[in-house]
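Please check this.
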Amino acid sequence: MTTDILYSFRRCPYAMRARWALLICEIKVEIREIDLKNKPIEFIKKSSTKTVPILLKKNNEVIEESLDIIIWALLESGKENIKNLYIPNSKEKEILEIISENDNGFKYHLDRFKYSTRFNSCEEEYHFLEAMKFIKKWNKKLTDSRWLIGDSPSIADWGIWPFVRQFKIACESQKITNYFEDPIKEWLGNFENHQHFKKLMHKYDKWEPSTKKDYFPFN
């Protein structure tokens, strides 16, 4: 194997943040877009969690967590000091704490709001209001700064914006208005209007072992 391989699903926010890191770090990989309802056997054999994203390195080592893929991309990048740029030593604890807050708190309520029919539709409003507590907390951070941690983007921003975007999509589909204040709206817009966004969301055909290889980012 001569190229690192990323198993991905286009709309998954975990996969999105991993792909975003690869884009920013200018790392090209073979991408395998999979159907989560019909996972290929090659993927199942490689992944202990059976979830995306996973990165299969050229040496056959497997990285299964999106945050670990982000950190790998930062270390793998040829850009000098890029890791310290996006994970400054003085802010590392704070950065990891806010990502954990997203992954273990906000995501829980987001899922139960967005997919309420899969869980308990009677609790949809409750989970919306709980998710809004995180949105308001992050909005407060962004009131005084353009970014979540400090005056420049970090992996805290990378790690959270795909989930905030998913919350926005859920609100719009349910005709909810006034869910964002200006600071967090502008912050999310930094990513949605970024020159890399179309590359991030390029639609690949579903991967099959017999099909030709696809690469990310798409040229």
